[in-house]
């Protein structure tokens, strides 16, 4: 091979390699005025995606300028990280579902204010929104995300397992102590688990708010500045949980998996929206959370959908959101997600599209719970608080743990983040 | 005389040959390292995209981070454990499987096969096996031993992550050692036998010196690999319980991508890079003392 040929070959290989690296970047976006909207969601449930797509199709039919609306399913466990990485990488979606990341996004002015556009949308009926539902996603009187899901935590009961263990409960007067006693009996007689706080798994400690609220405890003060994790109420609540895990065995211990919906546990605390996981393989009951020493209480987990301020198609995205959340579509979404609209919040309305739960169950477990419900602990920097709290709380999950000392160490770990 | 002398042409040809590789290194290694240095000097609000220059603030934060000493301790324990076990076990397996016996190929395949399994799949399966009511404790229970709750206590969690990492990757070192052992000239063993050398002194005075270049290579590769082990920690323990298995690379991920502190995360990443470089350079320098190269 001559030197010239050789040089030519090398140059060609280099050019080919560089072109291969650069090709995607050089492709220019479609120049047409067609809007392509993308919304990140954490559901991959086919029925839910089908409903979202059907609403999007109807919207596109009315708005020919909108070329496509894509729902991008991201795994729930990494949802916040993936969304943040997309934002940081300049590839933010136009719309996004959001849970505990909302406070950070609102604080950073990364969301578009929705109050004005929604009020201006004909037939949207802004006054129909439940105030308590809008509160979590509002700042200074402006709503930044439509709270499409307001799902109270409820107690699911596997009545088959209770019967097997000869246990009976009275749902009207149910207390946590009774749940623990029945759970321990089920565990002793059948080997199945007693009660499981779903998704806790000895990691996501914020889900334990579904228990400690019954003891009157809170993770931090109302203004979010002061840790209250070591309060006497919290100590009592964690003593109850610790006893359940290590003494009475009413709750499966660390490292033991038990899925209520697979029939492995007598009770579980989970959101009403999880009822879609019931397969009919056992008889079940669904009741409001049991009473704690401080009486009855209710806790909800919320999710909102907002428009990212960085979207290049903001107005179109806001317009689609107002369509997605209008009274008609809110009623359709209500079959999966308890809506934030007063007009839709009756047991009968919610039951209309619900195949698993009846009107009475939905009235008791959802509608009656919403007005006084507290949300799961929510704060800016949620991941850092969750991680630092978990690292400190790990020490609690041994049989000989010093509960007050561990709870104090949780405050030592998270107070600097709260005070930021 | 033309400008393009043969020498100049050769030089140009040489550069053109390494250009594709150089371009790759520049784009995928040097540029990201440069960006990490820049990020480490900034505070970056990922939600707004706003970067504020903070100078050495992130570097000063290293000294004030109460978690960092524990993280470095866990990193040393994990990497040390993985390197020692991996090299020792790899060498032992290679020596055992360097003989001719029925089924030797089968055993070589068995010990190498975890290497080709996806690390996440491998770790997920071990995650189930190591649960309190999982397969390992089931087996131990069968012989009357009450197994510990492997992933929930600091010491057993560290043992678990080291063990799963070593079993998964020991096959690579085993194969490298096998190749090295088979490269040792037979006549040296023959001469040693004639001189009446014991097996131990044959191994210590002939085998080990002659495979020392491979030992150097495997130590460097294993140290670097251990310091970069991320997936098994993320899947198996997520750094817990407490900080017992939070190694530096996982801590970098937490700070940068979970807590959105890209500046501090980049600073930690540069610290990790400097550790890898110093350790590798140190081994490279020390090789003169113990690595034997055949002339």
TrEMBL record, chain B:
Residues 72-283 form the ABC transmembrane type-1 domain. The lineage of its organism: Bacteria, Bacillati, Actinomycetota, Actinomycetes, Propionibacteriales. Keywords: Cell membrane, Membrane, Transmembrane, Transmembrane helix, Transport. It is a multi-pass membrane protein. One of its GO terms (biological process) is transmembrane transport. The keyword Transmembrane applies. Belongs to the binding-protein-dependent transport system permease family. It is found in: Cell membrane. Its main location: membrane. GO terms for cellular component: plasma membrane. The chain crosses the membrane at residues 12-39, 76-97, 109-129, 157-181, 202-227, 233-253, 265-286. It comes from the Bacteria. InterPro entries: ABC_transporter_permease (IPR051393), MetI-like (IPR000515), MetI-like_sf (IPR035906). SUPFAM superfamilies: MetI-like. This is Sugar ABC transporter permease.
